[in-house]
Amino acid sequence: MKTRALLQARSLNRRIGNYLRQPRAGYILATFDRSSYLDMDGQIVALVTPVLLNGPLNIVVDAETFHDRVAAGDTATSTDRGLRAGGIEIELAGAIVWDAALPPWPGEHISRLRDNLVTLRGVLEVEAPEGGLARAATGHVATTALETRAAPALRDLARGLQHPDALLVGHAASTLAGLGPGLTPSGDDVLVGCLLTLALYADTADRMRHAIVSGVRNRTTRISMAYLEAAARGEASEAWHRLVDAVAENDPDRIAAAARGVMAFGETSGSDMLAGFVMAAEALP
Prior knowledge:
Radius of gyration: 19 Å
Order of helices and strands: EHEEEEEEEEHHHHHHHHHHH
Distance between the termini: 60 Å
Number of helices: 12
Number of domains: 2
């Protein structure tokens, strides 16, 4: 039997840290080379290596990999000072507390976002990988089975955000929920991007956020739902914070570089999220 590996948490999202102040128990839902997802009394927590950066569900752990020490189904327990899961023990005390919440924007920053949509579209046009919904979400003719299936709902989503029509948005979200393969399906990723745009619109977009979350509930994976709920709260990964900061500073070069950072997440997840972000920004009045 392997001895339990003692690891140090480098940082964690404030909300996750607050949640783990009370003793929690759970199990590992899924594990990969650079991440491991836990269900801790109903809250999804992601253990990630430093290369995956801070995020709304993340505890960033000083480790290179997880798959050789933990496996799906392993039990997990936590206190305010540490977390045990499978063959690892993570020291939480001393970790940097990071806030995933995006602050609502003043009107001039929204104008800067619209002014720089051409830059974001340009990065998507050239660099979005095949296999997801980035092209369909930004108005291209569907060429794959996934795009063809999603296209009507994507059009309805854009129209619903434009008018605004919460019923249409909710119906479109329910169709897109769980659509596509992977841990976070492409349809969900597009909706996450939309929710992050809505997060920048202060209180004016509450109905649209609620419509999306209501539309996807019980229609996708638990891990993907956790990311959708985080986005509805305005919580985003460190890569998204860099993009939002670049837009606020109106720096096209930084915007393009930060967009590539967002797109680096997963095989198609990052590009699908960015496309949803652009689609919502173009649609919102």
